[in-house]
Amino acid sequence: MPLYHQPVDAAEVPRFAGHSTFMRLPSVATAEGLDIALVGIPWDGGTTNRAGARHGPREVRNLSSLMRSAHHVSGIAPYEIANIADVGDLSVNPINLLDGMERIEKGMAQIVANGALPLSVGGDHLTTLPVLRSVSGGLRAVGNPLGMIQFDAHSDTNDTYFGGNRYTHGTPFRRAIEEGLLDPTRIVQIGIRGSVYGPGEHDWAKAQGVRIIYMEEFIRRGPDDVMAEATQIVGCQPTYVTFDVDAIDPSMAPGTGTPEIGGLTTREAQQMLRLLHPVNIVGADVVEVAPPLDVGGMTALVGATVMFELLCIIANQVRQERSG
Amino acid sequence: MPLYHQPVDAAEVPRFAGHSTFMRLPSVATAEGLDIALVGIPWDGGTTNRAGARHGPREVRNLSSLMRSAHHVSGIAPYEIANIADVGDLSVNPINLLDGMERIEKGMAQIVANGALPLSVGGDHLTTLPVLRSVSGGLRAVGNPLGMIQFDAHSDTNDTYFGGNRYTHGTPFRRAIEEGLLDPTRIVQIGIRGSVYGPGEHDWAKAQGVRIIYMEEFIRRGPDDVMAEATQIVGCQPTYVTFDVDAIDPSMAPGTGTPEIGGLTTREAQQMLRLLHPVNIVGADVVEVAPPLDVGGMTALVGATVMFELLCIIANQVRQERSG
Amino acid sequence: MPLYHQPVDAAEVPRFAGHSTFMRLPSVATAEGLDIALVGIPWDGGTTNRAGARHGPREVRNLSSLMRSAHHVSGIAPYEIANIADVGDLSVNPINLLDGMERIEKGMAQIVANGALPLSVGGDHLTTLPVLRSVSGGLRAVGNPLGMIQFDAHSDTNDTYFGGNRYTHGTPFRRAIEEGLLDPTRIVQIGIRGSVYGPGEHDWAKAQGVRIIYMEEFIRRGPDDVMAEATQIVGCQPTYVTFDVDAIDPSMAPGTGTPEIGGLTTREAQQMLRLLHPVNIVGADVVEVAPPLDVGGMTALVGATVMFELLCIIANQVRQERSG
Amino acid sequence: MPLYHQPVDAAEVPRFAGHSTFMRLPSVATAEGLDIALVGIPWDGGTTNRAGARHGPREVRNLSSLMRSAHHVSGIAPYEIANIADVGDLSVNPINLLDGMERIEKGMAQIVANGALPLSVGGDHLTTLPVLRSVSGGLRAVGNPLGMIQFDAHSDTNDTYFGGNRYTHGTPFRRAIEEGLLDPTRIVQIGIRGSVYGPGEHDWAKAQGVRIIYMEEFIRRGPDDVMAEATQIVGCQPTYVTFDVDAIDPSMAPGTGTPEIGGLTTREAQQMLRLLHPVNIVGADVVEVAPPLDVGGMTALVGATVMFELLCIIANQVRQERSG
Amino acid sequence: MPLYHQPVDAAEVPRFAGHSTFMRLPSVATAEGLDIALVGIPWDGGTTNRAGARHGPREVRNLSSLMRSAHHVSGIAPYEIANIADVGDLSVNPINLLDGMERIEKGMAQIVANGALPLSVGGDHLTTLPVLRSVSGGLRAVGNPLGMIQFDAHSDTNDTYFGGNRYTHGTPFRRAIEEGLLDPTRIVQIGIRGSVYGPGEHDWAKAQGVRIIYMEEFIRRGPDDVMAEATQIVGCQPTYVTFDVDAIDPSMAPGTGTPEIGGLTTREAQQMLRLLHPVNIVGADVVEVAPPLDVGGMTALVGATVMFELLCIIANQVRQERSG
Amino acid sequence: MPLYHQPVDAAEVPRFAGHSTFMRLPSVATAEGLDIALVGIPWDGGTTNRAGARHGPREVRNLSSLMRSAHHVSGIAPYEIANIADVGDLSVNPINLLDGMERIEKGMAQIVANGALPLSVGGDHLTTLPVLRSVSGGLRAVGNPLGMIQFDAHSDTNDTYFGGNRYTHGTPFRRAIEEGLLDPTRIVQIGIRGSVYGPGEHDWAKAQGVRIIYMEEFIRRGPDDVMAEATQIVGCQPTYVTFDVDAIDPSMAPGTGTPEIGGLTTREAQQMLRLLHPVNIVGADVVEVAPPLDVGGMTALVGATVMFELLCIIANQVRQERSG
User: Fold this and answer.
1) Residue A223 has pLDDT above 80, yes or no
2) CB contact under 8 A, C301 and D261
3) Which residue among B49, B69, D235, F39 is buried most deeply as judged by most CB within 10 Å?
4) Are A261 and E252 within 8 A, CB to CB?
């Protein structure tokens, strides 16, 4: 009998059968006893243009049925080395922005309080703000500002929209820095690109010390070099990893609200994710998968695979912490 | 030279060419001088489940390019008898519910103040609440509660969602009755169907005097009989007409957030709309067209045609008022 | 061994296997020896708005793989009583309107010269004009103007488009009447509806004696009554049957260039087609199936089934002629 | 605290949130203690043409999130009067037909042994054969042949395919009659239509006493009259209800392997389902929902709603049995 | 108050709101006073296979709503340095090839006569021929043959189709060279690939001096090297830039009539477009975006972004001309 | 008059016209007289998850209409140097796995007996097993185990599924090695990636001597280096080439049952296919194109183009054998 929760075996039960959970893992009521909690945050209340990310968790669960139980490169078998389950979706409120954020913060706080490391699926990028509030205040982070590695087409450090509204999926990291949740000098943003509101759009973030690696710099340097710098910047202090699926090129991830052509390939993204192992990860997410805008489930598949890559890295970290 | 604004002639300029406006009419800056203002309200802030109606105006404009200039049954040629144009979209706020409603109310107030009768395209059904605030306070209604004929699968008279939230696309007409915008004894709801939250879901509305004509009653009686009753109920007092596209069967209008099978056919709906002529219409809308959920533009085509049916009825009313 | 060409048996070879031909019949090089020639006319050169009907024959062939070998109501087994095959597509020219029409006329003339009765799949409705030129001059019609039963949302008797262009899919039957191919007093148009260019759009056709049965009249009278009149009008003289798939409601046939809501149901259409038996049919077609605009192959399936209904009627007529 | 399992309340948790189960009910491990077991049978091993029904349960679960908790016509609130839950999917084998059928039979036998009445979602129509084996042998049926009301475009009483293969989705009820599971004189098939393999395709079934109500007879007589006959034929003896989604017109249910135009409307189907109350139902299913062929989730929505209609009827029967 | 026309600000008006124009710029009646005229050419009369590019301008306008106001790499803010607006669509004729070309030529001549530099969106590639006739005869080119940089999968220098037809989207540049509009020794074609009609298909073009850079050579050399050669070839003489979206790989731009796998990535294309600055551009276009063949708006997004890249380059050229 | 079968000329007959055959070649009844037989195998009986590849041949035929007659890089004009035709689809059985495999083996044996080299389109990857049985026993292979170059995301050397089932699309090459059809030391698998059932999933294959080139090694080394090794491993002995379309990245080939992100680009695949010329090819296939899962025909286009690339290589080999 296995030590930990195991996914349904696709060589016994076909992938299209059975309830749809993240990675076909058991669905559990709370994060108690878990090392890693897989959790959905079905909320896109901060979306300024094309909504749909509220449906992200359901479709990422569906496509995660294609994931098997071990990583073909690292050999990591996460379910052998860590206790992992699907804790369901956080409570949300689709028609009330502030209440929505509060519910997410509280829901995530319970997971963190149980000692589980959260790996969540949004939802739009504003979901990361209440998540950071809970994670940065949790045991792993002990209240210090977190570092962050952000894969994204957009810096998401704008100030306000539509006449002074401060909370949107274009502003979460400005708010997180202002709230002291993130240490801007330990933030690295990779894959940034696309037209901007003005030549100075990123000035504020840069002035805070955020390291923006534009797509063009990434293309010149490549995944290894960029990740060497990124992991050096965040160091060994607690760090959050956030993966906005629009970091990926729209040909590979069309189902997202704000696509920008000329993006990362999945190969590049996978190579970078596998280089996260030196990072002290205290939480991670995949956001902005918007199924109503998707074609053929392509984006949900990318989301599910990115989630599996992150899961392997984090499970290995759990093992190292346990043995170390 | 024509007296009034004319649509682009499809026998001269193909329907796929030129800017996309409602009915291929000119786009004008304000409603000044218009008899009827066609206006978009791209907002779905009140949507509790599947969003997308924010994109409704754009796609209804696109498909309205298939409308020609006269009605094949009544012979009404609206652009010969009334001054009609596309006044663009009202200002909205996708991330702030109360501000969004306020902007809609203000934008609509300007149209009403110009003496134009508004025919709008949502947006979700909550948009009708701020519209009613402006229309009921305008010159045509002089502050008295309005009657309303509502084509819909849902009564939209629920009370609250998600812990006390009073403004959603499931609650607008409870609020409108409470605010004195609508006279419940002069409300007729046609096409109501689908599972309910409980056997008593419509008790409040019925207690106020709202006349709910369930789909099953409609099927038994047919369009003529039902409309005879409906027009008798609203009488000659100012009345608003609201058409939720989910009144129509999902096979004909799949692109909507809350579809219910067993709905009205477009033939039945057209027959009913053509029987609206005795009604004293002070405004009308088509709501809940959600393009990201649509297939092949079917729902936007239904929306555009319903809009044209309403436009013919209203233009004829304008002519009668003018001559009478 | 059967007397006539037989379709592939779906109880032996699955429907998705084998070459795609009309009704899974053999593909033959010419119409020689055939009673009925199934033929494609992949051309939409006359389309004024949304093209795509050029792809109609291929997709109708694909979906015709769902047709079996006998009619469940009449019991007609067409392949037992008539020699029928797929003669391929007529030569067309997608970039030259007049050459395209000429090629279609010539190709159809060869089929007619072989004594086969053509059942074709367009293509847009302008294809019917060159077809009528050949069919009306063929042996069955001996040069007299034909009668015509037309199922359609549009009368297609407009005069010119885009500054004097006389040949479009909105004008074929004006031209056919002018050219003496059709006897206007023996034309019946069923299902006409949708907004018009002006209240007098159909005046010319009516003045010629064309009988237009608008959708609203059809709804009142029903299929039986309408077909009784239609068959009486065309009488026993040679008659062409043309089925524009936009006669059918867009919910059932969305894949067409000029959809109009409030159309015929397939049930009504099938009932009418089965009442064609008294008519002296000299040719028939199904037009305006536009696969790039279709969803889920629905329209091509309607096209294929309408084709099968027509085929059964025509095969039975062949048998009666042979035995009579 | 409620007596029975309750669905998640959509006024508290939005419909897109949380795990996807039938009707948003709890997922339970076995049918123990249940009155009605909702169960998926994700298997299309008997499909002779277009596969995809194996994905039916997952998508019907997704769309069943749109169902609320009471019936708007009958007022039945199933979760107040019966204990109902989602027992997951039966074990299947997508690559071995006979093993697949055996697994289904065994899985269903456990549900029946627990005293629960099964309401299942296929899967193709061959799944009904092993289900009937278990249900007919269960306590409710005590081994006597069952009656059956079948909503379907096809009789499914063919003999063999592809050279002697006896088990396909076109043959289940021939086998069930041969095996003595069904009493052919108590079988009613409603909605049968579409081209046939030959004029005598249904002779065998008719010779056994099966009552086939073709679509054309249905259209003439209407739902009430047809159901009066159907319920009279099956009488008060144990009866199974099977609903092949291709009974419904393809415009409303395009996502199925063998669509036939000219089908039932959902309104007609709902009216008939609501007239099932006199029947002694021992099990029911909805089959042939094939999501890869669906557009916009329309077919899965029909499947989910049919399931809810059946659930209300069966729950009411449970209450009557309990009280009676 | 800004000197020049400004786009609607997406931080004030959401991107889904308001009329759909190129880049959300004002729609103006003529090119008078403009430095750069954005214009649609909704015409695919020259398309030999899959039509649909006639719908290109409308969807590129829609997706151009995702463009912001400055370039994130060059910092160019086009609306600060040049007067730019949307002048609507040129007059076209979808059913008459020669008239269609004439209308395009005339429409473009007016823009050129106003001194505006045209940046157009097709339409198929035959649209470029009448455009070149006007542009090459305009003030900027003073009648000398133009150079051309062409991004494309196909050389488009074939001779005739379908029996002598000289004007198709496969022949424009043969005609343009024959007409003396283009100087073949100053034409560079980049991205050419895909199977050919015969080994000598490109012999004529090469014999004229056209420089064809096949995809394979491009892959070996890379964007920088290829553009160094290309800009050297066209030199400082007036040059036209034409971007056929099928230059891009079909995974990124599926919505086009003649896709060829193995194409340019958008990253490569963007890198090349940004290297156009030394070129003396007198006009540019993006062609062959065919929305009915698109999936999820991906191709229209590529088209809109390529348009923005070109706009930045051209606006900068305008500034340099003005200042220098 | 040409020596060999010629495809329909797209400069005479548009690509959308005429019957749909592979490469628009003639359809012939048997492989007699052919050098290369193009053949479909519409069967996905071994598919453990998402079916649909049974529809592969039909859609690859459709999209192969975009292929022209010569290769733009090698200049090979296959129809000038070899006799090639479409021999239709092999007999299959969609509901009986073992019978299905037997039919495929027999059908392929007839082609091989005619001396034609088969280039087939599946179908799922289990189809390759019966094909190998026939090819390895044919004249070209004279019974010796074949070498194989396999482009694939998966090794397909698992043992059993669903409790001992040995024949699935995940096991064909384990079986082929066990049956002595393939020489494991002459098998090269390129593009392998994606999560695995366990760290040791490929141990058996590696122990047999199969050379697995994982995606990551491929990325490091590139197409030229990898193919140098692959062609060296298979040597000059008879070799089969199998191309599973899931080798290609899902952004380029989404229409397949088991997609894995991070795959080969089509550019890389084309480069490798062009390097196959030293190999002694005795048969080849393209498998796992699943049209119901495809978007916009992208995957079928990739399948058709890969088929054309293979055809050119094989035709050239035929010419060399003939002349040599």
Assistant:
1) yes
2) yes
3) F39
4) yes
Confidence of residue B168 (pLDDT cuts 50, 70, 90): very high
Residue C232's contacts (CB-CB under 8 Å, 6 or more residues apart) are: none
Residue with tokens 């369009």: B223
SS3 A240: strand
User: Do residues D165 and D284 make contact, with C-beta atoms less than 8 angstroms apart?
Assistant: no
Instruction: Give the C-alpha separation, A80 to A13, whole Å.
Output: 20
- Chains A vs E: touching, with 3+ CB pairs under 8 Å? yes
Q: Which pLDDT band holds residue E1 (cuts at 50, 70, 90)?
A: low
* Residue numbers in C near E49 (CB within 8 A): 94
- B/e letters for D100-137, b = 16+ CB within 10 Å, e = fewer, are bbebbbebbbbbbebebbbbbbbbbbbbbbbbbbbbbb
| Sequence-ordered list of residues with C-beta below 8 angstroms from that of B70, at least 6 positions apart, any chain | B76, B77, B78, C195, C196, C197, C198, C199, C201
Residues of A with CB under 8 A from a CB of D: 13-14, 16-21, 27, 40, 42, 54-55, 57-58, 61-62, 86, 88-89, 91-92, 94
Instruction: Return all residues near A235 (Cβ < 8 A) that are at least 6 apart.
Output: A147, A186
The contacts of residue A78 (CB under 8 Å, 6+ apart) are A36, A69, A70, A71, A84, A311, A312, A314, A315, A316
Cα→Cα distances D169→B79, B242, D41, D49, D130, Å: 57, 46, 14, 10, 12
Cα gap C264→C176, rounded to integer Å: 25
Cβ neighbours of E96 in C, within 8 Å: 97, 162, 165
Of all residues in chain E, the one with the smallest CA distance to C168 is E95
Contact F10 E193 (CB under 8 A): no
- Does the model's pTM come out above 0.95? yes
Output the pLDDT for position F139.
Answer: 79
pLDDT tens-place string over residues F4-18:
999 999 989 999 999
| Cα A202 to chain centroid, rounded | 22
Q: What's the distance, Cα to Cα, between the start and end of chain D in Å?
A: 25
Domains along the sequence of chain A with CATH: 22-323 (3.40.800.10)
pLDDT band per the 50, 70, 90 thresholds, residue A272:
very high
CB contact under 8 A, D49 and C305: no
| E156 is an annotated ligand-binding site residue | yes
Q: How far is B274 from chain A (nearest CA, A)?
A: 35
**DSSP β-ladder status, D146-151 and D117-122:** unpaired
Do at least 3 CB pairs under 8 Å connect C with D?
Answer: yes
Alpha-carbon distance F18 to F20, whole Å? 6
Residues of chain E neighbouring B42 (CB-CB closer than 8 A): 14, 16-17
φ and ψ of B126, to 5 deg: -65, -25
Per residue in C187-229, pLDDT (tens digit) is 999 999 999 999 899 999 999 999 999 999 999 999 999 999 9
Averaged pLDDT of chain E: 97
Per-residue pLDDT tens digits for B64-81: 999 999 999 999 999 999
Compare CB distances from A16 to F50, F194, F196 and report the shortest one's residue. F50
Where would I find the beta strands (DSSP E) of C135-210? 146-151, 182-192
C-beta atoms of E94 and C292 within 8 A = no
Pairwise CA distance, residues F92 & F101, whole Å: 8
In chain E, residues with a C-beta closer than 8 Å to the C-beta of A203 are none
Burial (CB count <10 Å: 0-12, 13-18, 19+), residue D98: exposed
ipTM of the complex: 0.96
Q: In chain C, how many H helices and how many E strands?
A: 9, 8
What is the dihedral sign for C-alpha F288, F291, F292, F296? positive
Alpha-carbon distances, residue A142 vs A113, C308, F39, F255 (angstroms): 12, 74, 66, 47
Split at pLDDT 50, 70, 90, the class of F79 is very high
Q: Which residue has the tokens 């598949």?
A: A301
Q: F309: nearest CA in chain E?
A: E195
